[in-house]
Amino acid sequence: MRTDDKVAQGFGVGRMTVQRFIRLTELIPPILQMVDDGKIALTPAVELSFLKKGEQGQPLIFCFRLVNAAWSLQ
Question: Which of 32, 42, 44, 48 is deepest in the core (most CB within 10 A)?
Answer without folding.
Answer: 48
